[in-house]
Structures are given as structure tokens and as C-alpha cells.
Structure to design on (343 residues):
């Protein structure tokens, strides 16, 4: 079903899906909603490799024009959305052996399915599937994600399900890595109190670091809110990472937005009872431009040992199933204004 050229697979209302294969050999789906386009990797992590709202590309800029068939996180990192976890997540610290961001980012799927349906007066196509990770004398789990795309919409409804199918308690962590492209003139908005913003300490930078990099970190260290302003010449290196706890709104969801100059927005919404932490992640350099508005997570991104020490490492008992939900993508100016009123 997957060849170098695109092949039509299905039409469902205003939705259409084609299959193709990247030059690297990775199978992909090209899904169009009428207002947006998403490129999905059904058998490699069920990533959303690329995304557009109209003609505007939402996905981070990276050095990877195409996905690479590998399990190594940094060897194929440039997708719009990546699942991270599940026995560990984040950057392993000294003495840790877990993979960066765990097994999920590029986990091979045993099977993948497309489900067609209708909800709220709109047709939808849902990508789902089943993947397993097993290690003798360690763990065994089943991973069942779902990504729903609706006709006429430029956003995604995501749900994850992880089941411990092993015989003992399994350490568990999860993070939804949603990587927008920063837009000059945009501004980050969320429901954090305007007073008493978190502190930011400038990281140690190596000798010879360009003045523009020092300038950004100095400005954010002096006024944390400065990082909210997306300016064209910002240099954010090596990266800005901070774990936050966004409050839920009246709808029970927490929200973060990149409000665009035209009044539209990119956004992430999630349920804090399911994913109590939000990681804000930014990096901006000549070869990469990425804005993680908020990455919903079960813990901070410092690795499994740090989560255990902080009391944030979860454990799934045999047979226990963990579920969580997220929504993310682009909104029109009218939709963005309504969401802003909830902040």
C-alpha cells in the first residue's frame, strides 16, 4: 500500500487520506481535512511528522527533512508531535541507562488502523494501533494511542492508553512532545498568574557564545515574562526548559497559546488531573526553530531518577491501564478569542 508516489486510500466527507513512502523507507499517511494537512507515521511511533494550517507550516524547523527508520530519539527528531515514555521519560542523568525520552518516540507498531466516524456534526478519521515493549526481567506493556482529525479542523484530539501486561509493578512516565514553529510577533499566553512569575536562572554558556544568545538569557533572567514575546531575531541556545503547573479553567482543561499577529493562535489543551505537569521548551538557532508551548507530562523532563526523587514517578500495577487526553493545533482568530477568554 505504500510506494514512493502518493496513492489515494479513502475519502470520508471532507477528509481524504493518501499513502506514500518517504525516500528513507518510512511509511506515511497524508491526511487532509479541508483546512489542514497532517503527515502521519502509522508504524513508527504513530508520530505526526508534519502539519499545516492552510499554507502555514506548524511544525518545528529541524535538520531532518524526512523521518529516519531508527529507535534513536535524536537521530530522527523533527516531528510535530511525538509520544514520550513509558518506563522513563526525559534526559537520562549520570548513571541512568534509559533511552532519551523512553521507548515510545519511535516504537514500532504491530498494527495500525484508521477508524471513520462522525461526531458533533463532523466526519472524523482516527489513527490508532497497538505497540508492545517487552524486556525480560523488567517490564511488558501495550501502547494504544488515538489521534482524531475532524473535517474542516486544523487541530488534533489525542488520547493515550498504556497497559501493564507484565507481572509486577512498572515505573511509568509520559510526555506529549508538541513542537510548533515560533512565529515572529507572536506571544505566549496561558493562565499562570501575572504576579509572582517563576524565576529563571541563566545557564552557564561556553566561552565564545555569541552576544545575541547572552542577551536573550539575560533578558529572561531579569524578567521571566520576556520569554513570552516571540521576536524574529531571538537566539535561544542551547534551549529554554521549565516545568510549570498550569491551572485548569472552568472547562477542567489547562490551555497555552501562541497568539499570532493576525489574531489566530496555535494551542495546547490538556487535563491536569491526568497530566499534572507542563514543560515549556524552546530552542531557536539558525538550523532549528521550535516552540513547545506546553508539553503535557506526568513529571519534569530530567529523567526517571529525578522523578523518583521528587515523588513524581508513577507505577502501574499488573493489568492497570493509564489514560490521558490532549488537544492541540491551530485556531482561527474567532476561535482563539474564545479560548483567550478562558485564561
Amino acid at each position: 500500500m505504500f510506494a514512493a508516489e502518493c496513492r489515494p486510500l479513502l475519502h470520508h466527507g471532507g477528509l481524504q487520506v493518501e499513502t506514500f513512502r518517504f525516500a528513507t523507507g518510512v511509511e506515511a499517511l497524508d491526511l487532509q481535512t479541508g483546512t489542514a494537512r497532517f503527515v502521519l507515521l502509522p508504524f513508527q511511533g504513530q508520530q505526526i511528522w508534519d502539519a499545516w494550517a492552510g499554507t502555514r507550516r506548524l511544525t518545528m524547523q529541524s535538520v531532518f527533512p524526512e523521518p529516519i527508520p531508527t529507535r534513536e530519539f535524536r537521530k530522527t527528531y523533527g516531528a510535530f508531535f511525538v509520544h514520550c515514555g513509558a518506563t522513563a521519560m526525559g534526559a537520562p542523568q549520570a548513571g541512568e541507562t534509559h533511552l532519551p525520552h523512553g521507548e515510545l518516540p519511535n516504537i514500532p507498531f504491530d498494527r495500525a488502523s484508521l477508524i471513520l466516524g462522525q461526531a458533533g456534526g463532523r466526519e472524523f478519521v482516527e489513527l490508532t494501533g497497538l505497540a508492545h515493549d517487552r524486556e525480560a526481567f523488567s517490564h511488558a506493556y501495550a501502547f494504544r494511542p488515538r489521534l482524531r482529525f475532524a473535517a474542516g479542523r486544523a487541530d488534533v484530539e489525542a488520547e493515550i492508553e498504556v497497559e501493564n501486561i507484565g507481572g509486577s509493578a512498572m515505573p511509568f512516565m509520559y510526555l506529549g512532545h508538541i513542537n510548533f514553529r515560533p512565529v515572529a510577533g507572536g506571544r505566549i499566553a496561558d493562565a499562570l498568574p501575572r504576579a509572582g512569575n517563576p524565576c529563571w536562572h541563566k545557564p552557564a554558556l561556553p566561552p565564545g557564545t555569541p552576544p545575541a544568545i547572552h542577551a536573550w538569557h539575560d533578558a529572561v533572567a531579569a524578567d521571566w515574562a520576556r520569554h513570552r514575546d516571540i521576536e524574529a531575531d531571538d537566539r535561544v541556545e542551547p534551549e529554554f526548559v521549565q516545568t510549570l503547573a498550569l491551572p485548569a479553567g472552568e472547562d477542567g482543561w489547562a490551555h497555552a497559546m501562541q497568539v499570532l499577529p493576525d489574531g489566530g493562535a496555535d494551542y495546547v489543551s490538556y487535563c491536569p488531573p491526568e497530566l499534572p505537569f507542563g514543560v515549556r521548551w524552546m530552542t531557536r538557532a539558525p538550523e532549528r526553530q521550535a516552540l513547545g508551548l506546553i508539553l503535557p507530562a506526568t513529571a519534569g523532563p530530567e529523567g526517571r531518577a529525578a522523578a523518583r526523587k521528587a515523588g513524581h514517578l508513577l507505577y502501574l500495577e499488573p493489568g492497570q491501564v493509564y489514560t490521558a487526553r490532549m488537544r492541540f493545533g491551530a485556531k482561527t482568530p474567532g476561535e482563539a478569542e474564545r479560548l483567550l477568554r478562558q485564561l
Notes: The chain has a mean pLDDT of 95.
